[in-house]
Amino acid sequence: MKFQPRCTECLLSRVAYEAALVLDDPDRIEGIRRTAAEVLSAGEGEGLAAPVLASRVHRCAYRLIGSDDPYLALKRQNNSDALAAATVIAPRLSSFHDNVMAAVLGNTFDYGVQAHQVTDDFLSFFFREFEKGLAIDDTDRILRLCRRVVYITDNCGEIVFDRLLILFLKAMGAEVTLAVRGAPILNDATLEDARALGLDLIVDHLTTTTRGEAELGINPLLLPDDLACTLDRCTLVIAKGMANYESLTDICDFPPVAHLMAVKCETIAEMTGVPRGSVVALLRE
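^ that's the sequence the OP posted. Answer follows.
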């Protein structure tokens, strides 16, 4: 998906949000927002995928903020909150569909998205939405492809519920490669987060989506060799969240992809054909 003008305000509001996580200076935060807008404007004519341009803007913002990981405290709190919730949720998950649903609802741990609010009562939210089900439910078709899986994560907090789905996949005999972000960006999970949850001991291989760059989504120019080789032989990619969806819809000659995500904006709602606020398990073959 190419960057669209309607995405501008959401991106810049997220820049202001992450700056405010570190800084207590409204004038400086506004200055960072203005500089980010200039970087965005300069890149809009390049025809870049939305995650590529957004990553460029966030890297600039991080330099101006003076932090490599402004979401660090929030990420740790998200994982702690999700672990507590998972102790209640996990015993109630019995099927592949149940575990997919939990992983999708975990995708709501996403901060600074203009039209999306993270709930203060995740357990109540979870069970309410769990009963509603998926707006797009391709879980039966997805399950048939779960032999050699590349699982691309998104946010912290969410990764706790990814762990439950991965445990289910391993129990059914699937080979799982887990790919997290190569460096901190937004509240996305990194190697540190995956290892803290013991995921390195569960999956067959743990890797990153870049060679150390802070980049959203999947950028083919930045893939490490081990991930590229694994993608060549996998039977399914499970891709969490909207940034992975935005990038993978532009990539040809890719394995089947199961997009597990909450639809948090009108652009993605229009692309998927479901209302904003829906949750989906969408298979693209």
